[in-house]
């Protein structure tokens, strides 16, 4: 397939992927530091925003490929399972933060 046709057909997926990666790059470029009063100053909102944009872009690109439905479902469930495993302890830490 011609690269130009591929990019034109799948522009919506790339329209989400490029800002998502850019958010992570901007977060790395800005960095974080500890202010004089001891508070941590960082643009933390860029991390989940980038993850959301990248996830949406990947879902759009996976759904646009001409592959069988069962493979599409597996490709969509695999990243969800990885994210669930990575953040498995996150709800427990949030509960401890607010109720301890």
Summarize the structure.
By secondary structure, the protein is mainly α. It has 2 domains: 66 residues; 34 residues. The chain contains 5 helices and 2 strands.
What does this structure look like?
- The relative contact order is 0.12.
- The chain folds into two domains: 1-66; 67-100.
- The longest helix is centred in the N-terminal third of the chain and has 20 residues, at 11-30.
- A two-stranded antiparallel ribbon has the order 1-2.
- The mean pLDDT is 76.
- The radius of gyration is 18 Å and the shape is flat.
- It is built from five helices and two strands; from the N terminus they run ααββααα.
- The chain has helices spanning 3-9, 11-30, 46-64, 69-86, 90-99; strands at residues 33-34, 40-41.
- By secondary structure, it is mainly α.
- α2 packs antiparallel against α3 (46-64) and α3 packs antiparallel against α4.
- The chain starts with a helix and ends with a helix.
- β1 and β2 form a beta hairpin.
């Amino acid at each position: 397939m011609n690269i130009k046709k591929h990019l034109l057909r799948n522009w919506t997926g790339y329209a989400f992927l490029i800002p998502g990666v850019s958010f992570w790059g901007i977060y790395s470029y800005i960095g974080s530091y500890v202010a004089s009063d001891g508070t941590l100053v960082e643009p933390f909102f860029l991390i989940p925003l980038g993850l959301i944009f990248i996830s949406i872009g990947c879902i759009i690109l996976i759904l646009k490929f001409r592959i069988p439905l069962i493979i599409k479902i597996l490709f969509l469930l695999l990243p969800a399972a990885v994210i669930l495993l990575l953040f498995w302890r996150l709800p427990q830490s949030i509960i401890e933060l607010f109720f301890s």
